[in-house]
Design goal:
About 35% of the residues lie in helices and about 25% in strands. With about 325 residues, the protein is of the alpha/beta class. Helix 3 (about 60-75) packs across helix 4 (about 100-110) and helix 7 packs parallel to helix 8. The chain is globular. The N and C termini lie far apart (about 50 Å). Keywords: Acyltransferase, Cytoplasm, Fatty acid biosynthesis, Fatty acid metabolism, Lipid biosynthesis, Lipid metabolism, Multifunctional enzyme, Transferase.
């Protein structure tokens, strides 16, 4: 006897309902970074746009920062943790191979028993999470989904590597995705380029690190990454606008992954964004926080009243893999 398989009811619109962030207490200046490398505050500012970054203390763990950011996002969305259907955590710096961070974070929030898993998509991880959350809500698999982007990249930074010591910071950002009256998250444009996997990576595997006693810090080939991000990612961003049916002049904000101000400038120019579009520059005080950078930047823009609820923003993440994802969202 053949029986039909039941599926979730229909489709519905999904949107971002609330965001929150957590920034570690310790502020690390360029001057402090330059105590370990041959560089200067002026050079770092000119090449990256970074003035300072936040580094987490011993108690500011991946889970602790995530719970703090998530609590603010839940409050902003007006829901309780036990209403969540899934918790997604985008990170590359939860250094325990298993268990994942997401189930621990879900339980600490009070969402015991919900689906929970980590996403390893580097600096594109938050945008990957947004698409997964949108799909879950739209299909009826979950009513509310929490997406967290969190990093402790200071744990993976070589303080004596002149090319990366000044780049990375720590922090967490979170967003609640749920039902919306109109589309609040546009079609995603995402992909990867494994042929360039070597340009951003850990310098060796954990197994090799155990054998030779050297820590597998992050290493990066700056010039190839800059060229790829500056030119190829503008094309991806334009595709996201096209798929959402949104023109550049209709945008209120552009919130790219906070990798480097020069990369952001190149994309702004390539996209021909008009002057009224607010450009996120959170990197100046936060550094590159990988999966956390987009929600951190969005929350700062909201806190500073540079954007308002209902505004339209283009978000794009890109990084190690190489991987990328972009979509248009309505700001909660």
């Amino acid at each position: 006897m053949t029986s039909a398989i039941r599926t979730p009811d229909g489709t519905r619109h999904a949107g971002v309902l609330g965001v929150g962030s957590y920034r570690p207490h310790r502020i690390v200046t360029n001057a402090e970074i330059c105590e370990r490398i041959d560089s200067s505050d002026e050079w770092i500012r000119t090449r990256s746009g970074i003035v300072s970054r936040r580094w987490a203390g011993p108690e500011e763990t991946v889970a602790a920062m995530s719970v703090a950011a998530a609590g603010k996002a839940l409050a902003a969305a007006g829901i309780q943790a036990d209403q969540l259907g899934c918790v997604l955590v985008a990170t590359v710096s939860h250094l325990s191979q298993t268990p994942a961070a997401a189930p621990i974070i879900a339980t600490e929030l009070g969402a015991q028993g919900v689906a929970a898993f980590d996403i390893s998509a580097a600096c594109a991880g938050f945008c990957y999470g947004l698409e997964l959350a949108r799909s879950m809500v739209s299909s009826g698999t979950a009513t509310y989904v929490l997406v967290v982007g969190v990093e402790r990249l200071s744990d993976l930074t070589d303080p004596e590597d002149r090319s990366t010591a000044f780049l990375f910071g720590d922090g967490a950002g979170a967003a609640v995705v749920g039902p919306a009256d109109e589309p609040g998250i546009g079609p995603v444009v995402w992909g990867s380029d494994g042929a360039q996997a070597e340009v951003i990576r850990q310098k060796e595997t954990w197994d090799d690190a155990v054998s030779d006693g050297d820590f597998p810090h992050l290493v990066m080939q700056g010039n190839p990454v800059f060229r790829w991000a500056s030119y190829e990612m503008a094309k991806v961003a334009q595709q996201a606008l096209d798929r959402a049916g949104v023109a550049a002049q209709d945008l209120d904000a552009f919130i790219p992954h906070q990798a480097n101000n020069r990369i952001t400038d190149a994309m702004v120019k390539a996209l021909k964004l008009p002057g009224h579009v607010v450009i996120a520059r959170d990197i100046a005080e936060q550094g590159n926080t990988s999966a956390a950078s987009i929600p951190l930047a969005l929350d700062r823009l909201l806190a500073a009243s540079e954007v308002r609820s209902g505004d339209i923003a283009l978000v794009i993440g890109f990084g190690a893999g190489l991987v990328y994802a972009a979509q248009v969202i309505r700001i909660p």
